[in-house]
Automatic annotation (TrEMBL):
Residues 5-131, 156-280 form the VOC domain. InterPro entries: Extradiol_RC_dioxygenase, Glyas_Bleomycin-R_OHBP_Dase, Glyas_Fos-R_dOase_dom, VOC_core. Signal peptide: none annotated. GO terms for molecular function: dioxygenase activity. Keywords: Dioxygenase, Oxidoreductase. Gene3D superfamilies: 2,3-Dihydroxybiphenyl 1,2-Dioxygenase, domain 1. This is Ring-cleaving dioxygenase. Pfam families: Glyoxalase.
Length: 321
């Protein structure tokens, strides 16, 4: 029962079309699945990733129209990162962001890696992180038709940062329950300490960074907020083991959830941040060929009988070429 790394990150958007345009046309990610929120089928759930939407590369967005602007704060997933192969790739992206008007900061170093912080149009806090000095969990392969040279393309998800009011309970869950290992720490520009933990084979594709902040209010989620982070488990058998393990350890989880493209469980860590454990498979090619991922509205079998109703409620969302 060892978590293999980060599986996906899910965030919130108020406008699926603008979100689609940014993540495919600006960041060059592939739309690997256009589906709906299984808990509220009136709205889209978009999945972006590498060429096949491999685990560890998936960035997803729930659309909630008219969603208010978030109020950043503690007890939140305060930022995420996306991997690229080299420091040279960051130079390419700095130029691309400047040319295309993407809000970004200067390049800097973070825990031994070059990073380029930026925001999407809804204020989603992100960084591109270089894998030049990285080892551990493998990255994916960039989408070759995303308008970005492959050698500079985004290869997957990097470290996820949590900001919490109480550090010790979150650390205890990560290390004593979930099997993460502490590998070090670094200081922010405001002289706060960020603690770094990894799982599986380690490295950028497995890391959680945690900063304690008692001087700010709790985040009020809105567009640009991160909803949850998911971690990789091998298969359903191991997922069931985790369900029993968490139950015996006193954690209240969702139990087994069938998302069709993967199986999951959900559990809140002690500061209230939502974690998910998700299986590596079956994958996104269950209902679409690898060549045509994301081109049509996909519905899992348990929603297929409602397709006419669901499609009638959705606004048109042309997929990128």
């Amino acid at each position: 029962m060892k978590l293999k790394g980060i599986h996906h990150v899910s965030s919130l958007t108020a406008d699926a079309q603008k979100n689609l345009d940014f993540y495919t046309r600006i960041l060059g990610l592939r739309l690997v699945k256009k589906t709906v929120n299984q808990d509220n089928t009136q709205y889209y759930h978009l999945f972006y990733g590498d060429e096949k939407g491999n685990p560890g590369t998936e960035l997803t967005f729930f659309e909630i129209p008219n969603l208010a602007v978030k109020h950043p704060g503690t007890n939140s997933i305060s930022s995420i990162s996306l991997r690229v192969d080299s420091d040279e790739a960051l130079n390419y992206w700095r130029g691309r962001f400047t040319k295309l008007g993407v809000d970004h900061d200067s390049m800097t170093k973070r825990f031994g890696h070059a990073v380029l912080p930026f925001r999407d149009p809804e204020g989603h806090q992100m960084s591109l992180i270089s894998d030049e000095n990285n080892s551990g969990v493998s990255s994916g392969k960039p989408w070759s038709r995303g308008g970005v040279p492959e050698e500079f393309g985004i290869t997957g998800l990097g470290p996820v940062k949590l900001t919490v009011r109480y550090l010790e309970p979150s650390v205890q869950m990560l290390t004593e329950v979930m099997g993460f290992r502490k590998t070090g720490e670094y200081e922010t520009e405001s002289n706060n300490i960020v603690h770094v933990f990894e799982t599986g084979e380690g490295g950028n594709g497995s890391e959680i960074h945690i900063e304690q902040r008692k001087d700010i209010q709790e985040e009020r989620q809105g567009k640009g907020s991160v909803h949850h982070v998911a971690f990789r488990v091998e298969d359903e058998d191991e997922l069931y083991d985790w369900i029993e393990y968490l139950k015996k350890d006193g954690f209240k989880s969702s139990g087994f959830v069938d998302r069709f493209y993967f199986r999951s469980l959900y559990v809140n860590e002690p500061n209230g941040i939502l974690f998910e454990l998700a299986t590596d498979g079956p994958g996104f090619n269950l209902d679409e060929s690898s060549e045509h991922l994301g081109e049509q509205l996909s519905l899992p079998p348990f929603l297929e009988h409602r397709r006419v109703e669901i499609e009638s409620r959705l606004k048109s969302l042309p997929s990128p070429l």
